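Lecture 7 notes: from sequence to structure.

We start with a single chain of 169 residues. Read the sequence below before looking at the structure.
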Amino acid sequence: MFKLSEIKELIKLLDQTSSVHELEIESEGMKLAIRKPDRPEADAAAIQATPYAYPFTPAPQPLSPQVAAPPVVSEAPAAPQQQAPSADGTLHKIVSPMVGTFYSAASPDSPPFVKAGDRVNEKSTVCIIEAMKLMNELEAEVKGEIVSVLAENGQLVEYGQPLFLVRAD
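Now the structure, written as C-alpha cells:
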C-alpha cells in the first residue's frame, strides 16, 4: 500500500520537474497514477471522473496534480455489517475525526481496545487513527455498550466515517 507521505513526495517531485508529465507506479497489486494537467479546467474534470477505492468527500480546494487508484474491493467495509445495526436510531456513532489508518489495538500483538459487547465510558480509548505518522487515540465520547465495530484493523478511513456504534446509557 502506498503511504500518504510517499504520495505527497512523488507529487512534489512531479510538480517541480518540467519534462515529466505523467507517472504510473504499480506495487503489491495497487496502481498509482499521477498526471500533470495541461489546463486547470482539465484537472477539475479529471478529478471528478476518477474512480476511488473509498467513499470520500472532495476537498473544498481544487487538487493538483491528480492522484488516482483503482477500486479495491477487499479493503472496503462489508455493507451488511454497517447497515444492520445503524437502522436503530438510538445508537451513537463514533466517527473518524480525520483521514487516516484505523488501528483497533496499540500494537499488532495487543488485544483490541474494544470489541462488540464491551462497556465504555467517555474517556475510554476505542482505537488509534494514524495520520501523517502521528498516532491519535480516539475516545468513546459516551458511556455505554459497543454494539458494532464498523472498521477493520489497518483499513483507511475517511473524515466523518462511522467507526463504532454505541448503545448509550
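DSSP finds three helices and eleven strands in the chain. Keep this in mind for problem set 3.
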